[in-house]
Automatic annotation (TrEMBL), chain A:
Organism: Collybia nuda
Gene Ontology biological-process entries: protein neddylation
Molecular function GO terms recorded: ATP binding; NEDD8 activating enzyme activity
Name of protein: NEDD8-activating enzyme E1 catalytic subunit
Stretches assigned to the E2 binding domain: 346-429
Keyword Iron-sulfur assigned: no
PROSITE patterns on file: UBIQUITIN_ACTIVAT_2 (PS00865)
Pfam families, per the entry: E2_bind, ThiF
Similarity comment text for this entry: Belongs to the ubiquitin-activating E1 family. UBA3 subfamily.
From TrEMBL, chain B:
Bilayer-spanning residue ranges: none
Record-given protein name: NEDD8-conjugating enzyme UBC12
Top-rank lineage group of the source organism: Eukaryota
Domain UBC core: 23-167
Active site positions: 105
Organism of provenance: Collybia nuda
TrEMBL record, chain C:
Protein name in the entry: NEDD8-activating enzyme E1 regulatory subunit
Assigned keywords, A-Z: Ubl conjugation pathway
InterPro entries: APP-BP1 (IPR030667), ThiF/MoeB/HesA (IPR045886), ThiF_NAD_FAD-bd (IPR000594), Ubiquitin-activating_enz (IPR035985)
Pfam families: ThiF
Length: 429, 178, 519
């Protein structure tokens, strides 16, 4: 504490936190009684809390600025992208001269320059590059991503991080997303509330057109563009990878699509539409990003300080007609592949074979499992089907489980009788 | 920080650490081990440790493609089942719904894919294409035209193509089941 | 589908054969929402923001980025240490003591070179007294936590003439906030309504009817049969039905069922998806296409009865529309927008041409009802969007608080929203009466009570709201400011572009439970 005060006294001036301190000095009518108003909570927020921001794009820029102003001083940010000119209509930490530079680095530098005393540590790369130890250091994670895949990964990683023996392992995940005038913000308490995977079927999928329509009965300009990108590109360009950020590639697709449209008397193929279809461009504006990011950061602030109740657990906004929003509790799914399903702690002899373990599982009255297939995070242990894989894994039946799974290791069990899967954590006697 | 952990005490089932196997990986394991395929379909894993890349061979026992063995490659990405599996025919075959590049016109591989569908549904769908080819929404237009205009000629072409013959300047792969 | 249409609109003025220029690339993600017309409206707008608070600069940030024409910050304060702590558009300690307007303008202007900006350090009171035409020269005026006496004068000035700028009033304290838009009327052509216009299958135009009758479903090539668009199938099936039912469409449940079965019976193969599509769209045959009630109600608008050549073009267009709908077929003009449907290219493109030709004819007829010249591109947009037209009517700032009965009614319909509104109104009133004194819950409650009719009850959420206000009466929290910045900018963009639909009155925000609501 003492060394912290010394370093921050240079940057904290009297009155700096006049606004924030009003809600940290006293509770409101709906504040949880556990809230400790005053210096304790300020110290935690300003000197102890460590927060991770995933994404330094439309949402990320806003999130970083808000966190810095609310008093978080140890912020990390991960982003694998570089700055493009089309980012400048909303990603307000970037300027024309920054085009081509890594978003994470430029954003971090800007925040540190603008908000004194805040440390922002950038990582220009993928979230998958980092391991559990890395994620374990944070108190909170905020995601401002546009990729379903990255969010699924981050969500699963944080759910898996939860260790029943260690309260610190539970990292609240706050996730935001926008599309045009619409957006959503949600709070995920891994293993406690509904997770990202629980709501996967709520997502709008990008429109896909039947491949035979594209090939033979095009009617819309989009059909001509998909013909160019899905069928003609691989046919004509072979193994050359399509880069949708390369204007030459877009130019080629556009001219091929335009020629086809002309042949079929279809109107409306433009450069912009071509780019929109092949890159699956989602409209994005500063104002919606500001709303959703502010909602996310407000939840982070409330969770970090307990100064007010936090969102339970989903906020949805539609701004096309008036300001319509809906706050509700998204329900956890029992058959969620990430946070649902049973987990068992099993303790048995280091001499037990895989076959013995399977018998043990089948005989367990409380789980009613039939024909279980087993795998460890690294490899398959025994699969009941298809025949080739059964044969390939059959030799493992005679092996001791301890040869394949380390002490404290994990096994995933699937079976048609299970809602999704069963997780085992194994301890040897 | 808000006391989240204290809430956890009230939750009995959830407080167990889960394995690091990805949701996609578990889902593929579940799909594969619960496949319910007829004897006319067989999967093959070039690397049995890699469940995400494999092939499926269909040997129809009825219909006009009887006697052939048709192979499709399956490539599943880590965003499965949000993304559908990528399926291509690895041979050059004469079929109204498969083009010469191996693209397959099957709705559940694209516009009608949903995460509730699984690998079994895709495989059954593929087999159906050989029992009931559809000339109305073709990928190989010549084959489709022949099928609807001159069914006998079409049947001859199917037989010839399966033996590795030429039709209208295209050499097809010999796909006869050995 | 709606999105792809927007994309099309957005790119009409863009060269279609080459990569777009830098400006188009910069604004690409927003042009897909409001197109070149919306962008040009933004670029011609002039915004005045009163105060350089954190909330004010957050709002401006979201307007400068998309490229408004000009903004002015009017603020005669110097940057205080407190300001420097919560405003991203001040540079920490180095800004303290400098003009708040100048510092904020300098840092906001960096966001977009094409936006003109100005810091005005004069006093609002002086301007109201000596130079009110300065205030009315803007497109929109935004005021955050403005002194209620000045706000009153400002709102009265801007309300005094229909041509004066829209006023946006923003108030916030801690986790609670609200904003209000003051305007007389706001006509919208491009509401981007998600309801599709009618295809008018029940009133098929002659070329469409002739075409459907010309087809011989029984002898047609089987592949063509599978690709007849459902529009054609239904027009034909309806015509055939009417012949045997005294010219009437299916009416009873049984008749509708029989009609659908008849459509499916037209199949020659079980898997003809176009007939399945026709069955699922069969309701279009017995849903009579009329003028939608929301559009018909616009014809009652007073401005229509007192139309003069100087009236805004929108009302001339509306008057022409009314005349159009008084003649057969008593519908809105046809739009050429055809949804995608199971069909081959030739039949779909042919159908599209029939709709386009007819839409063109009806547009000409529509134009003949216009009594003043209106730009062709506006007529096009108007006709194309006729099914989604809207006219919003606003109120003067303060009208709700001045009407205890209305306030009491609002409590019964939106009690938690009114709870916040009352608390913020009480706060503003109290700060004016006792500047510099921390407001107590008791004083705030008393102040709020005076707004309500004697003896009326507070909304049940009032104690929560007033407690929050008393906790943080002068807190302009960064997250609240940022969220308001987004919401207010969004509504301002909708007002300026006249696209999408802005709110008509109060929008209330509670960031404790994280919800927004409308009064």
């Amino acid at each position: 504490m003492s060394s912290q005060s010394a370093s921050t006294s240079n940057t904290d001036w009297p009155g700096r936190y006049h606004h924030i301190d009003q809600v940290l000095n006293s509770p409101g009518p709906r504040t949880d009684p556990a809230f400790l108003a005053g210096d304790g909570v300020k110290d935690f927020l300003r000197h102890q809390a460590k927060i991770l921001v995933i994404g330094a794009g439309g949402l990320g820029c806003e999130i970083l600025a808000n966190l810095a102003l609310t008093g978080f001083k140890d912020i990390h940010v991960i982003d694998m992208d570089t700055i493009d000119i089309s980012n400048l209509n909303r990603q307000f930490l970037f300027r024309t001269k920054d085009v081509g530079k890594p978003k994470a680095t430029v954003a971090a530098e800007f925040i540190m320059k603008r908000v004194p005393g805040v440390k922002v540590t950038p990582y220009f790369g993928k979230i998958q590059d980092k391991d559990d130890n890395y994620y374990m250091q944070f108190n909170l994670v905020i995601c401002g991503l546009d990729s379903v895949e990255a969010r699924r990964w981050m969500n699963a990683t944080l759910v898996n991080l939860v260790d029943p023996e260690n309260p610190e392992s539970l990292k609240p995940l706050i996730d935001g997303g926008t599309e045009g005038f619409k957006g959503q913000a949600r709070v995920i308490l891994p293993t406690i509330t509904s997770c990202y995977e629980c709501s996967l079927d709520m997502l709008n999928k990008p429109t896909a057109f039947p491949i035979c329509t594209i090939a033979n009965t095009p009617r819309l300009p989009e059909h001509c563009i998909e013909w160019a990108s899905v069928l003609e590109w691989p046919r004509v360009q072979g193994d050359k990878k399509m880069d949708t950020d390369d204007p030459e590639h877009i130019g080629w697709l556009f001219s091929v699509a335009a020629a086809r449209a002309k042949e079929f008397n279809i109107e409306g193929v433009t450069w912009s539409l071509t780019q929109g279809v092949v890159k699956n461009i989602i409209p994005a504006i500063a104002s919606t990003n500001a709303i959703i990011s502010a909602a996310c950061c407000n939840e982070a602030f409330k969770i970090a300080t307990s100064s007010a109740a936090y969102l339970n657990n989903y906020f949805m906004l539609i701004g096309t007609e008036g300001v319509y929003s809906y706050t509700f509790e998204h329900e956890k799914r029992d058959d969620c592949p990430v946070c649902g399903g049973e987990a068992l702690e099993l303790t048995f002899s280091a001499d037990l074979t895989v076959e013995g373990l399977i018998e043990m599982l089948v005989e367990k009255q409380d789980i009613q499992i039939k024909k279980p297939s087993l795998s460890s995070p690294k490899s398959q242990i025994y699969l009941q089907a298809p025949p080739q894989l059964e044969e390939a894994t059959r030799p493992n039946l005679a092996k001791r489980v301890s040869e394949l799974v380390p002490n404290g290791g994990e096994v995933t069990v699937t079976a048609s009788t299970l809602p999704f899967s069963l997780s085992l954590r194994i301890t040897y006697t | 920080m808000i006391k989240i952990w204290s809430m956890k005490k009230n939750e009995d089932a959830a407080a167990k650490k889960k394995p690091k196997t990805s949701a996609a990986q578990i889902r593929v394991q579940k799909d594969l081990t619960e496949l319910d395929l007829p004897s006319t379909m067989k999967t093959n894993f070039p690397d049995p440790a890699d469940l995400l890349n494999f092939s499926l061979t269909i040997t129809p026992d009825e219909g006009m493609y009887r006697g052939g063995a048709f192979t499709f490659s399956f490539a599943i990405n880590t965003n499965y089942p949000h993304d559908p599996p990528k399926v291509k025919c690895t041979q050059t075959i004469y079929h109204p719904n498969v083009d010469l590049e191996g693209n397959v016109c099957l709705n559940i591989l694209r516009e009608d894919w949903k995460p509730v569908l699984n690998l079994n549904s895709v495989m059954v769908g593929l087999q159906y294409l050989f029992l009931e080819p559809n000339a109305d929404d073709p990928l190989n237009k010549d084959a489709a035209l022949e099928m609807s205009k001159n069914r006998d000629q079409f049947l001859n072409n199917v037989k010839a193509s399966m033996r590795g013959g030429h039709i209208k300047g295209t050499q097809y792969d010999n796909v006869l089941a050995r | 589908m709606a999105e792809s249409l927007n994309i099309e609109n957005a790119t009409v003025t863009i060269a279609t054969d080459a990569q777009p220029d830098n400006k188009t690339r910069r604004y690409d993600r927003q042009l897909r929402l409001w197109a070149a017309t919306g962008q040009s409206a933004l670029e011609n707008s002039r915004i005045l923001v009163i105060s350089g608070s954190a909330t004010s600069t957050s709002i401006l940030k979201n307007l400068v980025l998309p490229g408004i024409g000009h903004f002015t910050i009017l603020d005669n304060e110097k940057v205080s240490p407190e300001d420097a702590g919560n405003n991203f558009f001040l540079e920490g300690q180095s800004s303290i003591g400098k003009s708040r307007a100048e510092e904020a303008v300098r840092l906001l202007a960096e966001l977009n070179d094409s936006v003109e900006s100005k810091a005005d350090t004069s006093n609002l009171e002086d301007i109201l007294e000596k130079n009110s035409s300065y205030l009315t020269s803007f497109t929109i005026v935004i005021a955050h936590n403005l002194d209620p006496k000045l706000l009153d004068r400002l709102s009265t000035l801007l309300w005094s003439d229909v041509s004066h700028p829209t006023l946006v009033v923003v108030r916030s304290a801690g986790f609670l906030a609200e904003f209000f838009i003051q305007f007389h009327e706001h006509p919208i052509i491009e509401s981007h309504s998600e309801t599709a216009p009618s295809l008018r299958l029940d009133k098929a135009f002659p070329a469409l009817l002739d075409y459907s009758l010309s087809l011989d479903f029984e002898t047609m090539d089987p592949t063509d049969h599978t690709h007849v668009p459902y529009v054609i199938i239904l027009v034909r099936a309806l015509e055939d039905w009417k012949k045997s039912h005294e010219g009437k469409p299916p009416q009873t449940y049984l008749e509708k069922k029989a009609f659908k079965e008849g459509v499916l019976a037209m199949k020659i193969k079980f898997d003809e998806e176009n007939f399945d599509e026709a069955e699922s769209q069969a309701y279009r045959c017995w849903t009579e296409t009329t003028v939608p009630s929301e559009i018909a109600s616009l014809f009652q608008y007073p401005a229509l009865s007192s139309l003069s050549p100087s009236s805004p073009p929108f009302f001339h267009l509306l008057a022409a529309l009314q005349k159009f709908t008084l003649e057969p077929p008593y519908t809105l003009p046809l739009t050429s927008t055809l949804p995608d449907m199971k069909a081959n290219t030739t039949s779909y493109i042919h159908l599209q041409k029939l709709y386009k030709a007819r839409a063109e004819e009806e547009k000409e007829r529509f134009k003949s009802f216009l009594t003043v010249p209106v730009d062709d591109s506006i007529v096009d947009t108007f006709v194309k969007n006729a099914h989604g037209l809207k006219v919003l009517r606003g109120r003067k700032w303060g009208a709700l608080d001045a009407d205890p009965t209305a306030l009491a009614n609002a409590i019964s319909t939106s009690s938690k929203q009114v709870a916040i509104h009352l608390s913020l109104s009480a706060l503003t009133a109290l700060i004016m009466k006792q500047p510099g004194v921390a407001p107590t819950i008791e004083a705030l409650t008393q102040e709020a009570q005076s707004l309500l009719p004697p003896g009326s009850e507070f909304p049940e959420e009032f104690s929560d709201a007033v407690g929050e206000v008393a906790r943080a009466p002068t807190a302009d929290l960064p997250n609240t400011a940022a969220l308001l910045g987004g919401l207010v900018a969004q509504e301002v963009i909708k007002m300026i572009t006249k696209q999408y639909v802005p709110i008509e009155s109060y929008c209330v925000v509670d960031l404790v439970e994280t919800w927004t609501g409308i009064i």
